[in-house]
C-alpha cells in the first residue's frame, strides 16, 4: 500500500474523533506511519456487527414486552454479553442465569440477586425491573 | 529508575506499541515494527470451533502476550508482572507503583474504556495500555492506539482491568525492573524471523499458518450453502474486522511485518530482507483486495455462490503468496 493510497473513509462511525495508524510505503519504497480515518470494508463490517447487536436488542425488547422473557435477557443483549459472560459477572452457573430469564422466576428473585444483575449491567435496580 | 516524563507515541497495535513506549522510557529505543518482528507477531489461524458472539474466530497475529514475553526474553528485559484476586488489591498495587514514578502496563477490556470510540467498544479483553501517573484522582493514560495521552477515572479503570470473560485480565499489570542499557538487536531479529517462519509453515494442524488460510478459503466457499445469507455476511465481516480493524496497521499486520523486515535489512546489512519486505507489501495488497471485495459482498448481501467462490479463490492466492514468501524468508542465511 502506497502512502497516498491509505484510505480516509471516515463514514462518521467514530464521529470523526479517531484516527488509527497504518503502515504504508512512500515514494522511495520506505515504510512510514500514516494516520487513517477508516476504510470502507472495515466500516461495512463494523456497521454490520452493530446492526446485528441492535437487532438482537430489539428482538429481546419485544419479547420482554410480550412477557416471554425477563429483562435479564434484554440487558444481556444490550451489554453485548453472552450467557457465559453474564454468568461469570453475577457469579452464577449458566443454567441459573437462563432460569432467571423466565419472567416467572425473575419476579421471585431476591433483592440481592437483582442488585448483582444491576451491577453487572451498570444500571440501577429500578431500571432493571422495567424495559421501555 | 528515572524521572523524565513519559513519552507517548501513537502506534498501530496495542501490544507492540506498549512495548515500544515502555522500553523507550528506559532508554531502550525499539520501534513498533521491530518489537512486532522480534516477538514474531505475524501469524494466521482460523478456528471455527472458537466462537466469539457466535462467529468463528480468525486471527492474523500470535496470541496476546506472546509478543511481549518473547521481546523481553530476547532482549534481556526483566519484567515484574502481577495478577490480583480483587479490584481493591489491584488498584492499591497500581497506586503504589505509579507513586514511585514508574509507568505501568495494564491489561484491560476496551468495553469499559470511556475514552475509546464507542463504535469500537466490544468485550475485547486483551487490550494493553500504560498508566504513568495520577492527577486529581484521575489516572494518566498512554493508550498506544490513541493519538494523544488521555485520562481515566478510577472506577472505569477498575472495571476495565477486572472485566470478566475470556481471557479475564484479572487486573494484570507489568513494568520493567531491569532494562539493559544497550541491547544488540541482531540475534533477537534472527530468532524472531525463524520463529515466525516456523509458526507460519510448520504447525501440523490445518487451522494454523499458511494452511490455515487455505482452510478458511475452503470454508468461505461453502458459507452460503451451510449457514445462509445472514450468517455468511457476519462470518465474512468478522474476517474483515480481524484483518483491518484498529490495531493491525493494515492487511492483518502484514505491512507492520514488512516494515520490520525493512528495518532489519538496514540493521543486519542484508539487502535480501528489503527485497522480501517489498514482496510482503505486495502480499499485503492482495489481502487488502480480498477485504475490499469481501466488504462489497457483505454490503450487497449477495449470498450467491459465485461471490463467495471468488473470495475463496482470492484467499487461496494470498495463501500461495504467503507460502512462497515464508519459504524464502526461512532460507535467508544469517
TrEMBL record, chain A:
It comes from the Bacteria. This is Uncharacterized protein.
Automatic annotation (TrEMBL), chain B:
It comes from the Bacteria. This is BtrH N-terminal domain-containing protein.
